[in-house]
Structure formats: structure tokens, C-alpha cells
Amino acid sequence: MPDVTTAPDVQANPYRLPRTVRPRRYDLTLEPDLDAATFSGEETIAVEVVEPTDAIVLNAAEIEIDDAVVDAGAASGALGVSVELDEETERLTLRLDETLAPGQAEVRLRFRGVLNDKLRGFYRSTFTDESGAERVLATTQMEATDARRAFPCWDEPDAKAVFGVTLVVPDDLLAVSNAAEVSREPVPDKPGKVAVRFADTIPMSTYLVAFVVGPLTTTEPVMVDGTPLRVICPIGKEHLADYALEVGAFALRFFTEWFAIDYPGDKLDLVAIPDFAFGAMENLGCVTFRERYLLIDPDAATQAERQAVVDVIAHEIAHMWFGDLVTMKWWNGIWLNEAFATFMEMTCTDAFRPDWQRWVDFGLSRSAAFDTDALGSTRPIEYPVISPRDAEGMFDILTYEKGASVVRMLEQYLGPDRFRAGIRRYMARHEYGNTETSDLWDALEEETGEPVRRIAESWIFQGGFPEVAVAPADGAGLRFTQRPFRYLDGAAGPGAGVGDGTGAGRSGDAGAGGEEPTRWAVPVVVEHGAGATSTVDRVLLDGETAELALPERATWVKANAGAHGFYRVRYAPDLLAALLDRLGELSALERYVLVDDAWAAVLAGAMPAAAFLDTVDRFADETDLSVWERIVGALVQIERLVEGEPRERLQRRIGALLAPARARLGDACRDGDDDRTRTLRGTLLNAAAVLADDQAAQARARELLDGFLADPASVDPSLSAPALSACATLGDVALHDRLVERFGATDNPQDRERILRSLARFRDPAALARTLELSLSGRVRTQDAPYLLSEALANRDNAAAAWAFVSGRWDEITERFPDNSIPRLVGGIRSVRDRGLAEQIAAFLADHPVPQGELQVRQHLERMWVTVGLAEREADRL
Questions:
Q1: pLDDT bracket for residue 6 (50, 70, 90)
Q2: pLDDT in tens, 732-766
């Protein structure tokens, strides 16, 4: 594998800072003016001069420098300084009148900036309080490279330093930062203002610095083994904080034990922000969240909504160790921070609520990663990062879900105990420091004696994943063969590259044109047997083929036993038939993978959609939520392919598939139901109403929705949420008006999110047109509107109208919405199935590039063409 772990040469990269001067400590004072949406600041940075220099170069963007002083101490005193700011590279250069000798020095700066509305750096957020008045707060989002918009700094992850922060604020506002408050004193010459000073932080990267100021309230601290834990939120929402406190306390204890290292901060605040571009941000000691991922009434929330809160809190608290205490040297390593935190969130959530079966449910996230990684435009998990824009492009599904899938595959192959021991070795060795990805592999190898680096690097330094074919070998053994898996791209037109059902039609096989074929070191976990008894073997498939000798011929084989491998499996026909005959003896995740692999084969042109329907007919007795969610997800895509009488036939077939499970569950909640059973009942109700056109299911959904709108507490959320989705899909303008009214009236974050997403599902053209206008009306936050438009683009019957709106208002959209949200908005095109519309979209995006998400947009376009190809292949056949 190529070695790309080392960042590009600093001197050759105009976006990287010289290594001549390094920060050691920042004393930073900031004074935000919430009414004027501005801030001023001053800082003293203690630096170490590593080699003689006549210039100090650091990062700054969108701020004005009022004064700059460089003080070399007793030897030279204050030096003459001229200031240069390069907007393109976001570098601030302090040119000195004389050469600065190696040793200690201070940089003192005064500066000003704007509290922007783009949800990055130091920015402005608003909310409406209980009296109807608009309230303003100032908050931060520094990752990846936006600390430079709040204060001049060495804005690179390996430039760790101690931060001493002081915030000058009105005395009636709350102010928080990374460390505990140590004093709050009136400012003599500023009546009504106080200077809030915070304790020094540990050495940390600039992207983890945080400060929040505003009309906020805080819960009483919960002491977690000596660490005070609080939830901070806008005034009036504190009644939604208890669940987060429970989860936060559990996660803090869980990770302290898991890593065998004490929590590295002096307190932990979980802060709900009304306007937030990401889901949450792992600022040490001051974690910021979208409201819906922190504030929740668990009695009024679905299991999925409660699980999302647990997941996100666990993810961010895991970062306190993996990311904050031990940090990547450069942004090429951000994938490991996020992949590992995603892996740890699953581990923690599974411990918090084992009945949620979090690792089974993770199959859905892994499927989403497969869906992008099966494209020719996929990327390696880790790649060289040159500019800030490159770093922004790392925050995608391949970093999080694929990365976590690879980590989980390694953990299961090595064994959980040995894996954790290796992680503890890595953490203890590098705490307070910075690492390359290879440092983790080395620690795991030392702990386990396994070829971890060889395995891992084959997955992170090349895009895509393999399909492993399994067939009987000579004698009693098994033969495993790997090849790259790719979806069939429909851009070339109907029928291009369609396979014969064996997988031969798939595009993207490496090795053409004399190139080396793509190979992975695939840790295959194989379970096989000749009846009731079975044996588990491990095979490292690191060439094209490998064989496993067996004492007797196996009558059945699971080539992804446990279903933790990030690869597809294609069984010889007899082996597949034997496995389908044993569905009741497979784990839920193993059954899930059988469905998932079959649907992927349809998208690759290797299996007709009708054959997929025959396969899932075998699952009529299925009881697991995640397996049904995967089946329903595929049925949604199939149902979009046909109209008229063929669609009616398909609806009847779907209804027959759903009927046994619906009969078992009934249409009302029962005492003793667990969360996943309740959720499954609602999932099947929605599928029957929308996909099977079941009139009784539709009537039941209307009844549930009417009950919910009259009295939310009267209907179990596991039924009201799917009923809302089904009724909106089939509803009219009158229902749209009722939902918009409800959206404006509720302050429950999960309620608002549910309603908002339902507004994108209306098949009624007039109703959807209202949704589109609502997205730019100012009544939907800029953090949410891009996702609303993305879902509208995926609307079964109104994608063309949604695209006309998006393309017609493109300039307004790109000006108003956060930059990182535009690629996510465009993601809705992946469901477009009409060639003419796809051609319009492709032409428009070619003329209107999205520089902050260029690769993601290419992936969305390619996935759109896969959908077009699927429609043109399968519509007539169905």
C-alpha cells in the first residue's frame, strides 16, 4: 500500500504554516456585541521560536488586526512589526524589523470581527423565548479550520497549546468555555459588563476551542466521579435536559473505564445551540449540539429519536479521549477520529441499552456507506489533505460509517479484548500528543501479533470494497475469490453493461489496461457445518483467491459469520439455497446482510429486481426490525419504478409479504412490547399504507395522526411518527396547512424535525410547492432547510418540480445556507430515475460547481445515474 499518512511537505504547501515558530499558550479575551453582531478581542500568545526568523506566520480570516506587537523579552524587547493578511491562504504574516533568535517570545494582537450567520467560526444564533421575543446568542464552530475566524492562531491540529480564555459579556448573560469558570468580576469602565475568566485548558488544538454567550440556562451539575456534568440550553427548554444528563453520566463513566484513563477536562458541559451546522462538536469540556440531539422528552419520542440522542452524546464524549486528548497530526487523519468515535458510540449505546441491539441496527448505516463506496467516484478513507477545502470534504459517510465499519471488522477479527488492550496502549503512549494513523496500527500489532497494518492499510488507502465469491473447492474445501464490487452506471444508456445474473455485468473491475488489480486483505470469518454442528475459521484473503481445507464437505457456509465484514458475499447457488433454508438459525444481522447483498446485486445488474422479490418472500416470518427496515427500503426503490397496472400488482404483492408480520403484531401497542417491536409495528403500518396502498392501514394512519394532533400524549410515538409520514405522503393541501401550523406552534425539537421531514413527502403537487416555498421563507432555520430540500428532491412524484425550484433559486440558496450543507442538499438527486431530468441536473451542476463538496456532488451524480439505469433495466421486466 502507498504511504500517504505523512502530510504533504509544509514548505511546498501555501496553506500550511512554517515550523519556525510554535505556540505554547494563548491568553485570549473576547467581547461579543450581540446586538451589533460583532466582536473584539485581544490575545497574548507565548511562542517558542525554533529557528531564526524575520517573520511570524499564523492563520486569520475575516477579522481585522488593529494592533500587533512581538516581544522577544529582555534581550530585544518589542520589535517593529508590519502586518500582511493573505485572504486566499488565510495566513497572517507579522514581518519583523530584525531577526528573531531562537527562544521564547510573545505575540500580542488586538482584532475585530463579525458574528457571522454562516454557522462557522464565532457566529450568531437566535431563538424565540416563551414570551415570543427573539433572543440572540454567540457561539462557535471551529472544526475544521474556522478558529482563525474567531482569533488569529496557529490553526493546525498539531499546534497544541494551553488556552486561558476570558469573555467580557453583559452581566445578565451566561458565558461558558472549555474549562471551569474561575472568576466573574465587573469591568470597571464598562457598566453592566463582567469579565468571566476560565481555568487553563490542557494542551489542545485550536479546532476544539469553544465559547458560548447568551440568554442560556444551566441544570444543576451532576457529579460523575468528581467531574461536574451540566446541560446548558436556551431559557425555557431546561425541562428537556434530564435524559441527556442520564446519558452523559453513563457515557462519561463508560469511557473512563474503557480507555483506562481519567477524563481529561475539569468539567463537562453539553450545550444545545438553536442554529448549528453539524450534529454536534466535541469541544473539550464544552460540547455543542443541535437541539434535537440533546434536548428530548423521552416519553414523547420514538425509539429512533432517543437512540439518536444517546448515539450523538456518546460519540462526542468518546472524542474527549480519542481526538481531544490524542489528536491527529494533520487533517488526513480526521477519518480515524470520526470513525473511531462512531465505533465507540455504538459500543457505548449498546452498553446503555442492550435491548436496542445497536450493532444490528448499525447495518443500516453500513449499507449507506456501501452505497457510496460501490461507485467509481468513491475515495479512499484517508487521502492527502492540502487545503481547508480538502479537510471539509472529509466529513462524509466514508469517514464516519465506512471508517467505523472497518474498525468494527478489525475489532471482531482481532477479538474485543485484544483490540481494547491495543487501543489502551496507543492512548497511554500518545496522550496530550498528536499521531499518524499508523501509530494506532503499530500499537494493535504489538498487542496482538496480527498483521494489523497490512490489513488496515488495504482498506483505508484505496476506495471501494470487494465482493467475496464462495464456492466448493476440489475435495471437501472452500474457495474464496475477491473482486472489486461496483454498481452498474446507467449514464451510458439503457442496457449498457447489463449482466447475465452472475455478476459479470458489473462495471469497475480493476486490472484493465494493464493496471494492477485492486486487492484487499480481507479478514473473512467463515462458519461452516454439515448439519447441526459447526466450526468457525478465519481466512485472510489477501490475494485473488484463497482456499480453506475441510475434513468433510460443508452442507452450509456463512462466509461473513457474524456479519461484521465490510464486503459483499456471492455464494455458489447451492450454498445460497442452503443458507436461505436455515434463515431461522442465522443471527438478525446475518439475515440483514443476505437481504442487503441481494439488493446490491440488483443495483450492480447481477440480479433482476423480480428475483430480489422472490428472495425477500422467504422473509415473511421475519421478526427483526432492522431486517424489515432493509426490506422496506429496497421495496421503496422498486415501487418507484412502475406505474399503472404493474404498480397495482406490485402493491398487492407487497401487501401479501407484509400481512403475516402485521397480523402477528396487530395495529395497536401491547403491554410488554419492547422498543424495537413497537418501532417495527409502525414501520410495517407505514409500508402497508404507502407501498401496498392498503386502505385499512391508511385509515388507521389517519386515525392515529388525528389523535396525535389533538393530544400528542394520547398516541404512542412509535405509531404517531409513521402515521404522520404516511398521511403526509398521501395527503392534500389542507393537511399540509395543519402540519405547518403545528410546526410553528411546537417547541419540541423531535416533533419539529418529524413534521419538517414529512412536509417533503407530499405527493400532492400543490402541497409540495408550499413546502418548497417554506424552505426559503425564513420560518425554517438555515441549518434545516437544506435537508428539507434534499428530501423534496427525492420525492417520488415531484422531483422535477423540486429541482426546478432549487435550480431557479440556486444563488439565494448558496448565499443563505451554510457552505457544508450544499453537498447534502444535492444528495437528494440520488433518487432521480428519469433520464431527461437527470441530464438537466448534470448539466446544471457542471455549470454551477460546489467547490466545498466537489467529490460528494460527483458521487451524488453517479448514484443518480445508477438509479436511472435501474429504472430503465427493470421497469418493463417488473
A1: very low
A2: 999 999 999 999 999 899 999 999 999 999 999 99
Are 53 and 73 in contact by the 8 Å Cβ rule? The answer is no
Q: Cell numbers for 6, please give them.
A: 505523512
**CA distance to 222, 313, 359, 601, per residue, from 249 (Å):** 8, 10, 22, 44
Active site (annotated) includes residue 316: yes
Rounded Cα–Cα distance for residues 774 and 788 (Å): 10
Q: What are 548's three cell numbers?
A: 480453506
Distance CA 541, CA 545 (A): 7
What secondary structure letter does DSSP report for 153?
Answer: B
Residues near 613 by Cβ (< 8 Å), separated by ≥ 6? 638, 653
Q: What is the DSSP string of 722-756?
A: HHHHHHHHH--HHHHHHHHHHHHH---HHHHHHHH
Q: Which of 305, 316, 467, 862 is catalytic?
A: 316
Report residue 478 CA to chain centroid gap: 38
Q: How far apart are the C-alpha atoms of 659 and 680, rounded to whole Å? A: 13
Read off the pLDDT of each residue in 430-451 and give the average, rounded to a whole number.
Answer: 96
Are 717 and 302 within 8 A, CB to CB?
A: yes
Contact 409, 565 (CB under 8 A): yes
Distance (Å, whole) CA 366 – CA 368: 5
Unique residue bearing C-alpha cell 473447492:
473
Mean pLDDT, rounded, for 102-126: 96
**pLDDT tens for residues 642-695?**
999 999 999 999 999 999 999 999 999 999 999 999 999 999 999 999 999 999
- The per-residue DSSP string of 3-48 comes to ---SPPPTTT-TTSPPSSEEEEEEEEEEEEETTTTEEEEEEEEEEE
> For residue 469, how many other CB atoms are within 10 A of its CB?
19
What is the β-pairing status of strands 38-49 and 103-114? antiparallel
User: Hey, is 438 helix, strand or coil?
Assistant: helix
Contact indicator for 852, 819 with CB cutoff of 8 Å: yes
CA angle 700, 706, 711 (to 5 degrees): 125
